[in-house]
Structure formats: structure tokens, C-alpha cells
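Q: What would this chain look like folded?
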Amino acid sequence: MKLSGFIDSIRRNKKEIMVIVLWIAIVSMVVILTYYSIYITSEKWRTYEIAFSFYEAPLMNSLAMMVIVIISGIAGVLLRDSRKLVIGYGSTIISSFLIAVAFSFCYIWFVLGYEIYGLLPYGWEWILLVAVLNIARLFIPTTLTLCLIGITLGSILRVYLFNK
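A: My prediction, written as C-alpha cells:
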């Protein structure tokens, strides 16, 4: 594919690209705020600068869940082609996960003071593993399911609104 063909396809799909980028940004911010909320609400996590715990984890509240379902529903209404909807869902899930993991990694490394692990061989990989585990338990199955419910409801709403 030539560069001019790629640029033309971007010009034709400006609206869809903008919808997907906004969807990625909002889902990422909701997950990041949910992850950060445990450090605001739990005195133990803040005092002892805990990076990961098996028995206590940040959970999405009903407002965060509602925002994800609503923004996914809006994306389901605005993305008219089912192929674009599936590609948008996949890219949203993957990109939001990677953005949230990057934030979690930077938060653990810089704010919580775990940069001392950088002196150990492969120490940064342990911090990355903790970041992935923190975000994965927020993402699987909660965010995956909520986005899927939202785009399904949005697609059904689009059919009833625009195909009469």
C-alpha cells in the first residue's frame, strides 16, 4: 500500500478514528482512576506504599462502570460498520490496557519509590509484572465485559434509530 493510499484511507475514516481514539482515552482514564483510587481510600496502601496485594485490590465503582458502558454505547452508535466496530473494540481493549499498565508501572517505579529494583538484574521486569497484574484484574473480566455490553447496546440502538 502506498503512502498516498494510506493517507486517503485516513481522510475517509476521520470520524471513526476520532471515535476510537476518544473511546481509548476515556476507558484508559477510568481504569487509571480506579487503580489510583486504592491509594486515596486505603490508609494501609498509602502508608506502606504497597505495590501489589493478593487479598486487597482496587475495584470499579458503579460510576466507573456506567461511564464505560455509556461511552462504549456511544461508540457502538457512531461506528456504523461491524468490521470497524470489532476493530475498534479490539484496539480499545489493547490500547487501554497498555496505557494503564504504563501508568501503573510509572506510578510504582517513581511515586512509590521502587526504582531501587532497577539496580537488580531484571528488577524492572518484576515491577512490570506487578503493573500488569494490577491492571489485568481490573480489566479481566470487568472492562472487557462492560465494553462488549456497551457496544452491543449501541449497535442495537443504532439499528432501531437509523434503520427505520
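The two ends are 38 Å apart (CA to CA).
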